[in-house]
Design brief:
106 residues; 24% strand; 38% helix; globular; alpha+beta; 4-stranded mixed sheet; single chain
């Protein structure tokens, strides 16, 4: 993927990512939709981040940041989210060995 500009850390997106990772870990599931039926865009909006676009990567079973990033970068779909120049903000959260990375642009 070609280089893109840096994204800014966003506390709202980090909280959404953290909460989703904690929920997946606590309830033993692995998917983008929450058990309450919420999708990532709905969770991001509920956190007060009013987006024009969003993306989400999830992972399970990685014990370090380096391992999960290597896995995401090695996966075409996940890498496309990371290298999407349209995303301006990002937050990541971990619960156990569940990881969520949320991206957005306002």
């Amino acid at each position: 993927m070609p280089p893109v500009g840096a994204v800014a850390w966003n506390d709202q997106l980090a909280k959404v990512a953290y909460d989703h990772s904690i929920d997946m870990d606590a309830h033993y599931y692995f998917r983008h939709d929450g058990l309450n039926g919420s999708n990532p865009g709905q969770r991001i909006t509920a956190a007060g981040y009013f987006w024009s676009s969003w993306g989400e990567n999830i992972a399970q079973g990685y014990s370090t940041e380096q391992l999960v990033m290597s896995a995401w970068l090695g996966s075409e779909g996940h890498c496309k989210n990371i290298m999407n120049g349209g995303f301006k903000d990002m937050g990541v959260g971990r619960g156990g060995n569940y990881w969520t990375q949320d991206f957005g642009s306002k």
